[in-house]
Amino acid sequence: MNKPEISSTTLPASRDDQDLVALTLSGCQEAFEAIMRRNNQRLFRLARSIVNNDSDAEEILQESYIRAYTRLAGFRGDASLSTWLGRIVVNEALGRLRHNRARPVFEPLDTVVEDTTVVPFTRLPKGPEHNVLNADLRQQLEAEIDRLPEAFRTVFMLREVEQLSVQETAQLLDIPPATVKTRCFRARQVLREALSEQAETQGREAFAFLGTRCDRMVSRVMQRLTDSKLLY
Q1: In a domain, 111, yes or no
Q2: How many Å is the Cα radius of gyration of the chain?
């Protein structure tokens, strides 16, 4: 069976997820690379919010992509591709935690908080005079996010950093929307106590996974698929 001759330079960035899945299954490696690049940052942040460690999060992301690739034929499109991939990452991350310690990862929360109005994070001004300040604030915010309980941290990362809706977050984590609202509200309360308003505006910059880190992940996954003779 001949594989389609499609190079990364001719693969349109506007291809939708279903097209990329179909191309991957037909043997187009560049299509799966495009899927990874499109989802790398969100999935890394999701994994890291659970395991709270950069290197573990990268390993989980790599394993999740391998699992996703080998199961891609089973993707039916009932949920978005990013949600489908996210569930694989969550399962992989929780499995690693369960292996490392025998206690529940997501502790149940009692009361639903009704006042859950959220003001979206905005970025600080760009420019040379802000670079050092932005970096310091981002490090401070990341440190405080790391200190959040796991249940709060994961919801906060999805809602406030990745800007997923309440429904999308609930679907991805398989928890009720009311629980999403409660955990996000409480996470913000904790962060407000620890951070100034200026530092909080750095939210969307936290735990970036772009550039060379993104390239490295794509390269490692494709090399493992090649070495394992798993490529379609």
Answers
A1: no
A2: 19
CA distance 140 to 199: 8
Residue 134 located in a structural domain: yes
Structural domain that includes position 152: 128-205
pLDDT score of 177:
96
Q: Specify the number of domains making up the chain.
A: 2
Q: Report if residue 197 sits inside a domain.
A: yes
Q: Whole-angstrom Cα distance, residue 74 to residue 181?
A: 32
Contact between 155 and 169 under an 8 Å Cβ cutoff? The reply is yes
Domain annotation covers residue 119:
no
Provide the pLDDT confidence category of residue 12 given band limits of 50, 70 and 90: low
Q: Which two structure tokens, joined as six digits, stand for 160?
A: 């406030």
pLDDT number for residue 162:
87
Q: What would the pLDDT profile of 68-80 be if each residue is shown by its tens digit?
A: 999 999 998 888 9
Residue with tokens 């991805």: 172
* CATH code of residue 153: 1.10.10.10
Higher-pLDDT residue of 113 and 139 is 139
Domain shared by 200 and 222, yes or no: no
Burial class (CB in 10 A: 0-12, 13-18, 19+), 181: buried
Give the CA distances from residue 48 to residues 29, 55, 79, 169, 197, in Å, rounded to whole numbers and listed in that order: 27, 9, 23, 16, 24
What's the predicted TM-score (pTM) here? Answer: 0.71
Token reading at 218: 């794509």
Q: What is the mean pLDDT of residues 91-110?
A: 65
